[in-house]
Amino acid sequence: MATSPEYVDWIVDQLSDFAAVTTKRLFGGRAVLKDNLNFGLIFEDELYLKADAVNRDKFEQAGGEQFTYQKADNTIFVSFWTVPEGIIEDKEELAAWANDAFDAALRAKKPKSKRNKNTKLSAD
Hints:
Blueprint: H1 5-14, E1 22-26, E2 29-34, E3 37-43, E4 46-50, H2 56-61, E5 66-71, E6 74-82, H3 85-89, H4 91-108
């Protein structure tokens, strides 16, 4: 099953109380971004939000499922979890969950290297 454009549009609208989010193609689905930072995924008409050690329990307790995919003979677990149906339908509640997911994405963001590209390393 593919990700339908109608579902993507609906999710973008549902997230409008949170922020003006954008989406971009990602391996047969869509990445959901705020300020060019990926905090959500849409695959097969299912919304997944970023989780980490701080907010993962919230997803688990709500019955969320972790996003997985197959690579060769291995199941790969990714730090995105499904959002409960009742949450998706409530814009205000979804905005709170999206904010937590965005915070998780910020925590996971790697800081840019401070090393200048023109700096040569010395061979001591």
